[in-house]
Amino acid sequence: MPPLLELQNVHTFYGHIHALKGVNIYVEEGEIVTLVGSNGAGKSTSLRSISGMVRSKQGSIRLDGQDITSMKPHEITALGVGHVPEGRRIFPLLTVQENLEIGAWNVTSRAEINRRMEEMFQLFPRLRERFQQKGGTLSGGEQQMLAIARALMAEPRILLLDEPSMGLAPVLVEGIFEIVKRINAQGTTILLVEQNALMALEVARRGYVLQSGSLVLQDTSANLMNNEMVKRVYLGEN
Amino acid sequence: MLDAGRSSLGSVSARSVLGWVYRFILFPIGQMLVFIVGAALVLTLLSYLLALLFPEPRPNISLMTQVNRQLPGMIVSGITIGFVYAMIALGYTLVYGVLKFINFAHSEIFMFGSVVGFEVMQRLAEGGNLPGWSPVLLVAFVVLAAMLASGLLAVLIERVAYRPLRGAPRLVPLISAIGVSFFMIDVVRAFQAITRNDFNLTYPLNNLEWIRNPVKLAIGEATVNIRPTQFIVVLGAVVTLIALNYFVNGTKLGRGIRAVSQDMATAGLMGINVNRMISLTFFVGGAFGGAAGALFGMNVGTVTPFVGFIPGIKAFTAAVLGGIGNITGALLGGLTLGLIESFLNGLLVYFPVLGQRYTDVFAFSVLILILIFRPSGLLGERVDEKV
Ligand SMILES: Nc1ncnc2c1ncn2[C@@H]1O[C@H](COP(=O)(O)OP(=O)(O)OP(=O)(O)O)[C@@H](O)[C@H]1O
Ligand SMILES: [Mg+2]
Q1: Bridge partners, residue B380, by sequence
Q2: Which one of A102, A116, A142 makes the best mutation probe of the B interface by having the most chain B beta carbons within 10 Å?
């Protein structure tokens, strides 16, 4: 059986900038896998390549064995890939409700949309209180919740999370990681990109370390946390 | 069912039906009334101010008397042309909202609507069965045909002339749009020259009794002749504007268009086919241009392949005046500009040297002043405001 998601020798460019230089990543169904690396390493670019926001020049990206390398973002979404992009990217002038409805774009049954929305309110009670508020007026933490909930409205098979803890108070960061675990326990596979490598490795089963567009390490989280280089560079230990 | 937006919490109750009626019918109508009354009031006050400042702009002409006499007429024709501008302005604004691009070929989409409207009516007339149609049905049929034709044309133009240029520097699609504009004018001109040997197209309104007899309205010392076509324009505009408001704010597709206009890349991530939404936007904007074209044609009677330029650029002014990218702004801008123009038209004749021919100078001065002092327009840029 092929892994749920598999990147083979993926090269991605922004104009002349070679952002991914032959990346190989796989994610098995049910896993939480994390991608760590410093600024500009290519973490977001990896996620963007998977969801089709940028098209990779070379290599292949497969979902459940099916080649999705040159598909459009909306086609990839329809196949079960959810992407919470860097910086949340809430629709600022749509209400919380409308943002969630947009997340369930391919769901036609109103009852089903309502059921999922109710589920999201269980997960993020704050969103229920902010139901009719414009997305742009939410606080940073609330926007992050909304971004995750919006992606979950499509009930993706795999969720790509790009720095969900960015800009959040430490208490909220804990909360977000709790949510990540819960979502995973409910059956969603997760590929998590994080600056906060310690937290990420704590929730993930396996991890990859990216450095300027290339993978330099891959191992189980436990092993990565004990790796000298990882400790020094990403966990800030001496 | 009635209101997809509101029904998720709780059932569709009598209250939510009322809410729906308020949100999608009463509110837009109220808004239009406020804009009309507001703009008309301001201009009326300005006219009287003018009459006080220049009581006798020419010997033996009392401006006060003229203002009194002409006021209702100026307001009626201002509202009529204002709605036409508003409908065209919507096309600019909708497209700008999603692509941040001024579709300068929109004036020809409007022209195409007026030509199609003529063709439909002319063919019915040539078949001899024009008088047999009920007025409402005839107008609806002609307008719908023009909407469909212009909407499809706009979709085609986007597909052929703009989509391949997406991602190119901003000036490039603009130049393409101007090219499309000239192309359209010449295609229509050639077609009419070949098939009709003439490109002054006169709507066959003569054998329609109901369209020729104006309604006389006396208000004090003033009388206004309201032509039935003016009723048609206003009524047609109000109906289509209400429909547009519902489409954009009350339907799933409208929500998709708004999402694309706020963040195209993220909209794609949500599963929205962005290109389809862009086509849809062009269709809707084009259809409004087409409706405006047909209504305009019925109102003025004669159209040509060149008829799009001036209304197009004025509607663009209206869109900028209201705040480009903002749908409510297009309505406000259109009505304001229409009324300004009609007041100028009515009053400039009484001033020496100046005359009606200076109306456009003043109208475009509005554009320049807005661009200098308030480039975001009266209502600002709401569709694509980033937080
Ligand atoms: N739109 C773009 N145009 C040009 N270059 C880009 C673009 N986006 C990213 N890059 C470049 O590609 C490289 C990888 O960027 P990416 O956003 O993937 O980094 P990242 O690992 O997510 O970093 P961060 O932790 O700061 O988010 C960087 O060198 C960046 O400058
Ligand atoms: Mg990043």
Answers
A1: none
A2: A102
Q: Chain A residues with CB inside 8 Å of B255's CB? A: 94, 98, 101-102
Strand A58-63 relative to strand A5-14: parallel, antiparallel, unpaired?
Answer: antiparallel
The answer to whether B285 touches B150, Cβ cutoff 8 Å, is no
Domains and CATH numbers, chain B: 2-373 (1.10.3470)
The per-residue pLDDT for range B230-262, each reduced to its tens digit, is: 888 899 889 988 999 999 999 999 999 999 999
**Structure pTM?**
0.90
**Ligand closest in space to the Cα of A195:** 1
Residues of A in contact with B272 (CB under 8 A): 74, 102, 105
Pairwise CA distance, residues B250 & A90, whole Å? 20
Q: What is the ipTM of this complex?
A: 0.93
If you take atom 22 of ligand 1, which residue's CA is the nearest one?
Answer: A44
- The HSE-up count of residue B200 (CA atoms within 13 Å, CB side) is 3
Nearest ligand for residue A43 CA: 1
Chain centre to alpha carbon of residue B225: 23
Residue B257's closest CA among B85, B84, B21, B96? Answer: B96
Q: CA A237 to CA A235: how far, in whole Å?
A: 6
Q: Which residues of A touch B (CB under 8 A)?
A: 51-53, 72-74, 77-78, 83, 85, 89, 91-94, 97-98, 101-103, 105-106, 110, 113-114, 117, 131, 135-137, 150, 154
Per CB-CB distance under 8 Å, the chain B contacts of A83 are 269
CA-based nearest residue to B242, from B361, B43, B86, B40: B86
CATH topology for A5-233 is Rossmann fold (3.40.50)
- Give the model's pLDDT for residue B12: 54
Domain boundaries, chain A: 5-233
Task: Give the CA dihedral A214, A216, A221, A227, nearest 10 degrees.
Answer: -150
Cβ contact A77–B270 (<8 Å): yes
Q: Which residues pair with A61 in a beta bridge?
A: A7
Buried b (16+ CB within 10 A) or exposed e, B258-270: bbbbbbbebbbbb
The answer to whether the Cβ–Cβ distance between B271 and A51 falls below 8 Å is no
